Amino acid sequence: MIIGVDDYAQVEGIADLRFAKSDARLMADTLVRSGKLKPNDVTIFLDEKATRDSVQGFLKVLVKDSKEEDLMIVYFAGQGLAADVSDPKLQSGAKGQHRGVGTMVEFDKIRKSGGGWVLSPDIENVNEVAAKRPLTEEARKDEITISALLSFCEVEEILDTCAGSVLVISDCCFVTAKNWKQLMVGSTGQTSVSSDVNRIFIGNSGLAYEGSSTGGAVLTFALARGLAGAADALTPLLFGEEGEGAPDGLVTLRELAAFIQLQADSTFRELVEMPLHGQVKLAIAIQGCVGPEKVVTRSGLPVE
Questions:
Q1: Which of 116, 148, 186, 259 is least surrounded, with the fewest CB atoms within 10 Å of its CB?
Q2: What distance in Å separates the CA atoms of residue 270 and residue 226, rounded to the nearest whole number?
Q3: SS3 30
Q4: Could you tell me the residue ranges of all domains in the chain?
Q5: Assigned CATH topology for domain 2-298
Q6: What is residue 303's predicted lDDT score, i.e. its pLDDT?
Q7: Starting at the edge strand that comes first in sequence, how are the strands of the sheet with 116-118 ordered?
Q8: For residue 155, how many C-alpha atoms fall within 13 Å in the half-sphere facing its CB?
Q9: Alpha-carbon dihedral of residues 227, 229, 233, 236, nearest 10 degrees?
Q10: Helix (H, G, I), strand (E, B) or coil at 209
Q11: Range scoring the smallest mean pLDDT among 146-155, 186-195, 271-280, 288-297
Q12: How far apart are CA 256 and CA 169, in angstroms?
């Protein structure tokens, strides 16, 4: 399931983005071109199609039909609602800067639950509410905003019922998995949290930057490279000679998590078109647990 939202014109106080939809298309294209997934294995929700009801409904269908051998991938690019962030500097970023809302009304349930995704508002639902009781202009704006917010805890609850493996990529600001533990992939390929299932969350614990030089957000830029083969090509560096061994043409969940962990230590100042102080680094959250090895993509694509 691939979700990308650029258009937030109807949601009060939230800036539009430039590259969320193109990032979503890039992720879908990368997964299909890898040869691991077929086009009909990927469903894309863009802008007005990505409402709270449509996202939750489709996730529930996917987990209901899941099997133990399946790998379920959920990708979101858009604005993120912070969990307990009140710093005014982290309020909704100007267009083309970052993907996050630091303070926004008083949605305590979402802000205290690990943050959430800002989707497209469900205007039909708002109209149904308005038909039942008169709404002032301010109340209507609040109803529109509420209809666009999805707590990531609600996403977690759905995904935890999946019978197979789960990979969640959240390319927005602030959102982390509230109930999934921090995951570290060591140089020997051992992980800090092992399990009989794969549950991996990769997201931005800080700001998610966009830039024209990357053609999108920095995290998605790194992920696309990793999925296209860099995570496999760098296997000796990621795990050492005593770890996973030589590249084998496959990108696994373990390799991808380790690759992104390495990227979090890299400097991306030159990729971000903002007057920033100091160096820009990815503040990445990698959470969950790793079970049996699971292949995400085949790395037959050229890697620069």
A1: 186
A2: 19
A3: helix
A4: 2-298
A5: Rossmann fold (3.40.50)
A6: 42
A7: 100-101, 79-81, 116-118, 149-151
A8: 33
A9: 20
A10: strand
A11: 271-280
A12: 11
Per DSSP, the residues of 7-19 read --TTSTT----SS
3-class DSSP state for residue 40?
A: helix
- Starting at the edge strand found earlier in the chain, the sheet holding 284-289 runs 44-46, 2-4, 71-77, 165-171, 199-204, 284-289
List the structure tokens of 225: 């490279």
Provide the token pair at 40: 């009909």
Say what the pTM is. 0.84
Exposed/middle/buried for residue 267 (C-beta within 10 Å: 0-12, 13-18, 19+) = exposed
- Rounded-to-integer distance, Cα 300 and Cα 277, Å: 39
Structure tokens given for 95: 């267009």
With beta carbons less than 8 A apart as the criterion, state whether 95 and 22 touch.
no
Which helix (H) or strand (E) segment holds residue 170: the answer is strand 165-171
Query: Rounded distance, CA 288 to CA 191, Å?
Result: 10
Q: Number of helices and strands (H, E) in the chain?
A: 10, 14
Tokens 């197979």 belong to 164
Beta strands 2-4 and 71-77 are parallel
Report d(CA 165, CA 291) in Å as an integer.
Answer: 8
| Amino acid identity at 241 | E
> 222: which 2 tokens?
């790194």
5-21 residue pLDDT tens = 999 988 877 889 999 99
Amino acid at 293: E
